[in-house]
Design a protein that fits this description.
Number of strands: 7
Number of domains: 1
Distance between the termini: 12 Å
Largest sheet: 5 strands, parallel
Order of helices and strands: EHEHHHEHEHEEHHEH
Number of helices: 9
CATH class: Alpha Beta
Strand order of the largest sheet: 2-3-1-4-7
Length: about 210
């Protein structure tokens, strides 16, 4: 039976990276809500126009509308088999809606948590730097550039630091995750569908663990 793989992890856990690897290596589509919202900005459909209007007003896109976006995206041909959801569901309401979608698409749900301790998440997010030219990501703690604050590939490019990658903003983002998304772990654990992988190893170690589970 085909699966809907729900990757759950705090900001900085690396779930997006692992989802991309699954897509590249196993041809399992990565369905990211971030990508969907970006696509909506450039689309001209009734749903896209509704989302554009809400986003332009600075309001929150409702669970119902987000669900319609996910349903629309996963009805495409590339999602006929197993696919990975990255960034959805985020709330208990969205989790309940996903159950309906799984039933409709005749798929089973498998939830996988990429588990990283809080202090490590803080180091990853506050230490993150990127090249404005090529987008290469560095970390002052775990993956520093060869020359301080300069891209390895573009010697003239000074690395940039996202404004919201400061300790206060990161703490707020992690608290929001704890409040809104962590209850989903209990939800999936109660039904015996939650697996956990250690998100502290190397990229390949984490991928190997993830691959075994699916």
């Amino acid at each position: 039976m085909s699966k809907i793989i729900v990757l759950i992890g705090a900001p900085g856990a690396g779930k997006g990276t692992q989802a991309r690897l699954l897509e590249e290596r196993k041809n399992i589509p990565q369905i990211s809500t971030g990508d969907m919202f970006r696509e909506m900005k450039n689309s001209d459909t009734p749903l896209a126009r509704e989302v554009q209007e809400i986003m332009a007003s600075g309001k929150y896109v409702s669970d119902e509308l987000t669900y319609q976006m996910v349903k629309d995206r996963t009805s495409r041909e590339d999602c006929a088999g197993t696919f990975v959801l990255d960034g959805y569901p985020r709330t208990d309401v969205q989790a309940a809606q996903l159950e309906d979608l799984a039933t409709e698409q005749e798929k089973e749900i498998q939830a996988i948590e990429v588990d990283v301790p809080r202090d490590e998440l803080m180091r990853r997010l506050t230490g993150r730097r990127s090249c404005p030219v090529c987008g290469e990501i560095y970390n002052v703690y775990s993956k520093p550039p060869k020359t301080d604050n300069v891209c390895d590939f573009h010697p003239d490019a000074q690395l940039t630091h996202r404004a919201d990658d400061n300790e206060e903003s990161v703490s707020t983002r992690l608290e929001t995750y704890d409040e809104k998304t962590k209850p989903l772990l209990d939800y999936y654990e109660r039904s015996g569908r939650l697996k956990k992988i250690n998100g502290e190893g190397s990229l390949e170690e984490i991928y190997s663990e993830l691959e075994k589970l699916i």
